[in-house]
Amino acid sequence: MKKLLGIIILAVLVLAACGGNNDKKVTIGVASNDTKAWEKVKELAKKDDIDVEIKHFSDYNLPNKALNDGDIDMNAFQHFAFLDQYKKAHKGTEISALSTTVLAPLGIYSDKIKNIKDVKDGASVVVPNDVSNQARALKLLESAGLIKLKKDFGLSGTTKDITSNPKHLKIKAVDAQQTARALSDVDIAVINNGVATKAGKDPKKDPIYLENANSDAVKPYINIVAVNSKNMDNKTYKKIVDLYHSKEAQEALKQDVKDGEKPVNLSAKEIKAIEKDLAK
């Protein structure tokens, strides 16, 4: 009887160790346009007995709450500056950047003009209304020579910090997801890369003015994969990140974003340096 019991226990342990194909389940929240890359990650993860579920969000304000509350395990939709501002606005949020994904250059789009120099006096403009992306959009307008901002504008400035508006632009801040929809009703719109792609725009060819992806100034806007801070050493999550940066997933990304995004894979040391600069 003891021998039989031992065999049964051993069999149970072997089955538990095998765990089946759904031994590890990871839910990733996304609100961006690199869906094909994550679908490829999902496909590749099966080989490691990791069951990946991709949850789509249409509101930028929800994926971090879901992650902090434990409703999802990882998210990949935001850049460093967005997470920094979110954590400052939501005390107690324990979310950290595990890896980087892409730099998605911000663009100025128009259905009415072909050249940024042709922006007329009194032109109507829409920009994203969340803190980090609004500041980024205003910096882009300044870079294009349309406005001037305070010297200490930083990463959280608003339209109140415009010091010169020679063309008397009528700037309105709306939800980032609405900027592309508003394009037909305004003269120019500053649209996030992913939102533009979803709207059928080519983020590399269609903007009449585009952010310089090679400038150090855009480092805070590199997109990240975020996890709950206590899970920074989770081996399964690190494997997911490795799969995202695999050749197969990167090829899928390139197809999905029409080569309009720049893949970025920073080291942990480089990530910490950016986070440290933001915390100043």
From TrEMBL:
Subcellular localization: Membrane
The UniProt record lists the keyword Membrane: yes
Origin: domain of life: Bacteria
Membrane spanning stretches: none
Gene Ontology, cellular component aspect: membrane
Membrane topology of the entry: Lipid-anchor
InterPro entries (UniProt xref): Lipoprotein_NlpA (IPR004872)
Keywords: Lipoprotein, Membrane, Palmitate, Signal
Lipid-anchored residues (S-diacylglycerol cysteine): C18
Family matches, as Gene3D superfamilies: Periplasmic binding protein-like II
Record's signal peptide: 1-19
PANTHER family referenced in this protein's UniProt entry, alphabetically: D-METHIONINE-BINDING LIPOPROTEIN METQ, LIPOPROTEIN
Similarity field: Belongs to the nlpA lipoprotein family.
Protein name from the UniProt record: Lipoprotein
Organism: Staphylococcus simiae CCM 7213 = CCUG 51256
Lineage: Bacteria, Bacillati, Bacillota, Bacilli, Bacillales
